[in-house]
Design goal:
The protein is globular. The protein has helices spanning 12-27, 36-44, 64-73, 81-86, 114-121, 139-149, 152-162, 171-180, and strands spanning 7-8, 31-35, 54-59, 77-78, 92-97, 104-110, 124-128, 133-136. The protein is an alpha/beta fold. Strands 2-3-6-5-4 form a 5-stranded mixed beta sheet. Strands 1-7-8 form a 3-stranded mixed beta sheet, with helices on one face. It is built from 8 helices and 8 strands. Helix content is 43%, strand content 19%.
Length: 190
């Protein structure tokens, strides 16, 4: 696989939210990788969907959730205690990045299994247009998440990603991975 460095283009408010989220997690020394709309934009070369939340997968323990929430509330994010308590069992820290244009929802998802942990550890650097580098899940990991997501939009995005060619995703290796995870019924045609 070649070392393609994806590029993320974002509207100003989303740009500010991405930079702030990345900065917050870096300051807390929490290893992370953007998934969802940011990863879609990076690997497919599209701007981020204006209405989509930002999703970031992190390697941290559940006890660190409160530290993250406290630090976030001091760095431009709104943390609603009731939302945090309601998501306790979901391994999710719901944040709202406060922005003068319009707030941006940020979902911090704890990598609670080996598969997600590996996705964070093997994340790719991406260039944030006009800003710092961030980390996004690899193209094959994004395709896997989209395959498991299973809705029509996810499958369409996955198919576009798989059509990017072998420099982005090795289809044979991708299918072998699906089989190894017990998802042989989701193998995609070559």
């Amino acid at each position: 696989m070649t070392s393609i460095i994806p590029r993320v283009t974002a509207a100003p408010r989303l740009y500010r939210a991405i930079v702030s989220t990345s900065d917050l997690l870096t300051r807390l020394r929490i290893e992370s990788a953007f998934v969802g709309s940011v990863a879609h934009a990076a690997w497919l070369g599209e701007p981020i969907d204006e209405d989509a939340p930002l999703d970031v997968l992190v390697l941290m323990s559940s006890p660190q959730k409160n530290q993250l929430a406290m630090m976030a509330s001091n760095r431009g994010f709104e943390v609603v205690r009731e939302e945090l308590e309601a998501t306790e069992e979901l391994d999710l820290v719901p944040l709202m990045f406060r922005d003068q244009e319009r707030n941006v929802r940020v979902h911090v998802l704890l990598a609670t299994n080996a598969l997600y942990g590996r996705m964070v550890s093997s994340a790719s650097a991406a260039e944030l247009a006009g800003g710092p580098q961030i980390r996004v899940v690899g193209a094959a990991d994004l395709a896997l998440l989209l395959t498991v997501g299973g809705d029509d939009r996810s499958i369409a995005v996955r198919d576009a990603l798989l059509a990017s060619g072998p420099d982005v995703i090795d289809r044979t290796a991708f299918n072998q991975r699906l089989v190894s995870l017990g998802l042989s019924d989701m193998v995609v045609s070559e």
